[in-house]
Amino acid sequence: MLGWVITCHDEEAQEMLLKLEARFGPLAQCRAVNYWRGLSTNMLSRMMCDALHETDTGDGVIFLTDRSGAAPYRAAALMSHKHDNCEVISGISLPLLEAMYPLRATLSSAEFRHAIVAQGSPGVSSLWHQQQKNPPFVLLHDLYKH
């Protein structure tokens, strides 16, 4: 089953987790990380790293963030490059997470990424989708090395 790390501004992540648990019961492999004003990016990264390791059982972890480009999204993006089957989603809402909850147990991380972006369009995106729009910068010098 895919682990979920819900990370949003203020208390929104914890509130979403509590509402999901009220509907579905205790959620295995699911953690909330609240990003409070004044919290250092180093502390946020440490909290998210702990949540990543607490939720990953080998199938992968989905970071579910509220805003693309904000501190929780950036911290998740940096971690996702170091871990297999790790996805970063932005633009989440409680109704979207409720709809996607049953798919945690059946989809791979890449399949889940595509499904949640399709379900949540147009306001939902992923790090992978953003990278497809903006491919990595390549120096011309590197193109001619042969």
TrEMBL record:
Residues 1-124 form the PTS EIIA type-4 domain. Its main location: cytoplasm. The keyword Secreted does not apply. Pfam families: EIIA-man. Gene3D superfamilies: Phosphotransferase system, mannose-type IIA component (3.40.50.510). GO terms for cellular component: cytoplasm; membrane. One of its GO terms (molecular function) is kinase activity. GO terms for biological process: phosphoenolpyruvate-dependent sugar phosphotransferase system. It is found in: Cytoplasm. Keywords: Cytoplasm, Kinase, Phosphotransferase system, Sugar transport, Transferase, Transport. CDD domains: PTS_IIA_man. PANTHER family: PTS PERMEASE-RELATED-RELATED, PTS SYSTEM MANNOSE-SPECIFIC EIIAB COMPONENT-RELATED. This is PTS sugar transporter subunit IIA. The lineage of its organism: Bacteria, Pseudomonadati, Pseudomonadota, Gammaproteobacteria, Enterobacterales.
